[in-house]
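Example protein was shown:

_____
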Amino acid sequence: MLRSFSNNSSIVSTYDFARFKHIVDIGGGDGSFLVEILKCVPNARGTLFDAAPVVERAEAVIAKNNICDRCKTVSGDFFDHIPIEADCFVLKNVLHDWSDEKCLRILNNVKARMKLENKLVIIDSICEDEYSQIFDFGMWFTFGGKQRNLNEFKNLLSKAGFEITHVLTSPELPHAIIEATLGD
């Protein structure tokens, strides 16, 4: 699925990515979200981490936007290992694709690369209504994933050793922005 630049710009204008030196977009798809961040944060470096065939498409988007000097790609499987250290790890539209068990594998792999002062930024829908439950059935049937409410995100992150520090929602945002750090 290609990510819209308009949605990306509303997220980037809402969340302060400027405080980070190195941002990793895990499961970053075509790279458009990371490109949008790096265009707005010219002092940051970025790494897109995704499966090899996806990384090839992202490399073209990165090159087209003339940020190859600040952005690289790494291919791999986020269920097995994330070989990158950074001060910000982003999961945009990733966790809703997977069961709690698989999300815990992803989150534990992120946690293995984090330091106490680093941030995990999850950008995803937070469901609270019947429509979301219908969509949840479709996600479960197709991928084994699920839409989560805020308590389910808190529980999932807590099981992985994270603590939510901020939740940003707004009618202008396509998704919620959940910031987490390593828990005590």
Notes: The helical segments are 5-14, 32-40, 52-64, 100-111, 130-143, 150-159. The chain has a mean pLDDT of 89.
